């Protein structure tokens, strides 16, 4: 209980904490925009993820003097998780710094949809780590979008694989009933085509249940779920929708051990407010919680021990905070890779796009970054802007997240075909001529 109180108190402290932004930029600094959301129903995620992201950059500035001598600077802009505000922040920040914005990380699928066309024209990359449009994996069409680590579609196939494992094999899914309770938004609807394809492939019965934003009213939805009597429930929630769903599941007597959430349903902020209704709940993940990693220890030493942290120290090591560290690592590695080609100086978004497309985080490099066991190795290319990533599931035991089983590889055979079809349709609609990735770097999906 004491730990729970500390986390909740830390969240409240973060909301009122004054924003530390670099507002006076010099010609020898690399500018990174921070389109944060400290307000609204999804503030818990916005504060912690962006807080971790900024703390990682602050740590590099203090420990290493930046990236190869180039200091990292940033400025916040409040989006409140709204697409129109995201556009405003994009326009406000895109030309900041001596070379403009390095890349935009909006931490929201609606925001990616809203600015995608603008970013391509402006030649500024959009980085959507574990979220966004899944078909943007196809770099031949989406040159400036990078859904790094694992897309929603690939994560969805891993969830069904996990459920199949729990049932004793994928063949055991035939005839099973799965309810998909999803946030009624572009984000929430993103995996429906993949789930439908998987239902056809494995023979399970799928029903989709939308939950209106922000998700505080769900009683009618869960009464419908009870009538369906599913064997499993997939929870594709966000923010306040998640603890509300867990409470409603308990109310109708549905076992949380048979509920599998997207990674935006799998943070401490999602389960602690639900109390004992959350115990047993399972969620997907692409990184662990905890502080027992050299990279996190360096952040504590160079940032928090010097009183410069962006969130309450009690949140360091939480799921959302650690996701911010992942954002920091991947964005900065793209800058570092791009510097190898273009020089150790502030780079343009177009140059950093090259770095994002040529990431090669080997096991050795991940270890050098202090992220062994924290970040999976990955490699991007012209054709593949995701980089390939596995999914691991974790279960809430009432006090902490505990890993369940090994890393699961997505069903790329299924999703790559869907990605190519969707990307080709988008290219035709927008009049985009796909790049010849085999000619550029020999890559293909």
From TrEMBL:
Keywords carried by this UniProt record: Signal
Signal peptide coordinates: 1-23
Record bears the keyword Transmembrane: no
Record-linked SUPFAM superfamilies: Periplasmic binding protein-like I (SSF53822)
Coiled coil spans: none
Domain Leucine-binding protein as annotated: residue spans: 37-398
Lineage top rank: taxon: Bacteria
Similarity-based family: Belongs to the leucine-binding protein family.
Protein name in the entry: ABC transporter substrate-binding protein
Source organism: Beggiatoa leptomitoformis
Lineage: Bacteria, Pseudomonadati, Pseudomonadota, Gammaproteobacteria, Thiotrichales
